[in-house]
């Protein structure tokens, strides 16, 4: 079991990692409920070792690195029971795609693409989005989930790695016959399937032959087999928008033809007549984010099609909401793969604020949708929200501790006596800084734009900053004071440089 080899294959962002705790399991061992979050800690060699030895929690790696490249990508096909991995493998084989299928933690499939060296995250993501659409899993999560990390504050999203507990794992790779393989065999398959950057660039995703190959790819894919009861209404709506663009003078007849040709059973003629009447004289847009269309959606390709979405303003795909755990949380969300930072929860609650911040950050203006539609999108995001630990030093308590340290060090310099305390100085005695809270709050915190109330701040100092409240006799008065352990001064030491004596002019 080569930990180093495994680490090299699945390397990703090194300054953060993902953690998933399973709260409850069903009788079949499958996940029922769990919690996932991102921690801002280095991915150490010990964590890789623990993962392969089966020490909980398993290791989650973020594929995109700080230079916006990655060495692997993955289509995450979620399923909790009965997934047919062999059928998926055969489909991949028929399409001649250089992909490896793994059993995921939930029993679904992780479809991996590997490269010999890091490639642009955008290239990997675009290829896998096209692949997922052709496979019929266009609604699945694709890693890397973003094409760019916006800053050191941005962590991206993680994927739980395979081979947790090494060769005793349930998260194994399959060979082309649908058989589970051990680590050593996986390494051999990896060497066969890994792509050079040039090979990935030239990789072509074979689309099915169709008479609708000038329109949305979802119609092209959905009509390969008969559309059954579920989804007929939504599919016919999508086709109507395509037909009106392609056959503006004869689209009504095309709807009836499509109904009998591709639906099993066909919709009743009176239903079709109602849909035709509803769409007459109206310019309605495609509904790309609804099932079953989203499972076959390839927006990038659709924009190039003569009768696809083209320049039409389609509401973007929203995914992968992350909540940064501050006292006042902010959020990251993917908007068609681009990262957008939302300053607070209001930007998820109000469509106007959301549209404005998206336009400002990524130069895309989402079209207005109904309140009901917008709330549906946001509800879906919130159901899968991923928590991210706050950046070091960013919480209110961390900020207060920093303010306290600065105040105590700055105000204790020089010859400070007890009497100076009442004027805002910090007196030092018996290993303690001694100060008045009133002066600290009004003379320091308020000037630093501190927003917490007086009494709340006072309590925070006592509960979280190691401060003790008391009284001290100063002259004839006994004012209220606070004590805290002395902070170490980190003074820079400078040595004077001896200058060379120069000749006078």
Provide a brief overview of the structure.
With 505 residues, this protein is an alpha+beta fold. The chain is built from 17 helices and 18 strands.
Describe this structure in words.
This protein is α+β, with helices and mostly antiparallel strands. The protein has four domains: 3-202, DNA primase, PRIM domain (Alpha-Beta Complex), CATH 3.90.920; 217-302, no CATH class; 318-389, no CATH class; 396-485, Arc Repressor Mutant, subunit A (Orthogonal Bundle). Helices cover 34% and strands 19% of the residues. It is built from 17 helices and 18 strands. It has helices at 3-9, 45-53, 85-94, 121-135, 183-193, 197-202, 217-222, 232-246, 251-262, 269-279, 299-302, 346-349, 351-362, 371-383, 396-411, 437-445, 454-464; strands at 17-25, 31-39, 60-61, 69-77, 100-103, 109-120, 141-143, 159-160, 173-174, 180-181, 318-325, 330-335, 338-342, 386-389, 427-429, 432-435, 468-471, 480-485. It has a six-stranded mixed β-sheet. It has a four-stranded antiparallel β-sheet with strand order 5-6-4-7, with helices on both faces.
């Amino acid at each position: 079991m080569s930990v180093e080899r495994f680490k090299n294959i699945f390397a990703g962002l090194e300054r953060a990692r993902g953690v998933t705790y399973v709260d409850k399991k069903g009788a079949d061992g499958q996940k029922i409920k769990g919690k996932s979050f991102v921690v801002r800690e280095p991915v150490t060699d010990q964590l890789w070792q623990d993962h392969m030895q089966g020490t909980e929690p398993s290791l989650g790696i973020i594929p995109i690195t700080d230079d916006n490249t990655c060495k692997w990508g993955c289509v995450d096909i979620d399923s909790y029971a009965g997934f047919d991995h062999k059928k998926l493998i055969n489909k991949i084989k028929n399409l001649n795609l250089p992909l490896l299928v793994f059993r995921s933690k939930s029993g679904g499939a992780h479809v991996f693409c590997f490269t010999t060296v890091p490639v642009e995250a955008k290239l990997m993501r675009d290829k896998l989005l096209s692949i997922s659409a052709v496979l019929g899993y266009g609604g699945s999560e694709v890693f890397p989930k973003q094409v760019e990390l916006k800053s050191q504050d941005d962590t991206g999203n993680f994927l739980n790695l395979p081979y947790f507990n090494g060769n005793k794992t349930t998260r194994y790779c399959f060979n082309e016959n649908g058989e589970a393989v051990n680590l050593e065999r996986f390494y051999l398959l990896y060497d066969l399937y890994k792509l050079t950057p040039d090979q990935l660039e030239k990789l072509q995703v074979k689309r099915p032959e169709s008479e609708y190959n000038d329109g949305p790819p979802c119609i092209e894919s959905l009509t390969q087999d008969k559309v059954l009861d579920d989804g007929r209404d939504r599919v016919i709506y999508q086709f109507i928008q395509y037909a009106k663009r392609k056959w503006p003078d004869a689209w009504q007849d095309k709807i009836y033809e499509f109904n009998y040709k591709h639906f099993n059973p066909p919709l009743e003629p009176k239903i079709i007549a109602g849909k035709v009447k509803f769409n007459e004289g109206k310019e309605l847009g495609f509904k790309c984010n609804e099932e079953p269309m989203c499972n076959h959606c390839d927006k990038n390709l659709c924009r190039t099609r003569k009768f696809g979405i083209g320049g039409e303003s389609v509401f973007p795909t929203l995914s992968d909401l992350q909540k940064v755990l501050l006292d006042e949380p902010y959020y990251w969300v993917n908007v068609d793969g681009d990262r957008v930072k939302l300053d607070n929860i209001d930007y998820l609650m109000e469509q106007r604020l959301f549209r404005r911040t998206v336009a400002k950050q990524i130069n895309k203006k989402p079209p207005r949708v109904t309140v009901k539609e917008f709330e549906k999108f946001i509800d879906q995001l919130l159901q899968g929200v991923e928590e991210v630990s706050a950046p070091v030093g960013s919480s209110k308590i961390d900020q207060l501790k920093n303010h306290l340290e600065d105040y105590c060090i700055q105000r204790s310099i020089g010859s400070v006596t007890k009497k100076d305390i009442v004027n805002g100085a910090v007196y030092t005695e018996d290993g303690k800084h001694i100060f008045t809270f009133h002066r600290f709050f009004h003379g320091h915190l308020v000037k630093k734009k501190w927003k917490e109330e007086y009494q709340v701040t006072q309590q925070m100092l006592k509960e979280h900053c190691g401060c003790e409240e008391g009284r001290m006799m100063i002259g004839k008065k006994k004012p209220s004071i606070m004590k805290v352990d002395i902070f170490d001064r980190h003074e820079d030491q400078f040595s004077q440089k001896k200058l060379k004596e120069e000749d006078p002019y």
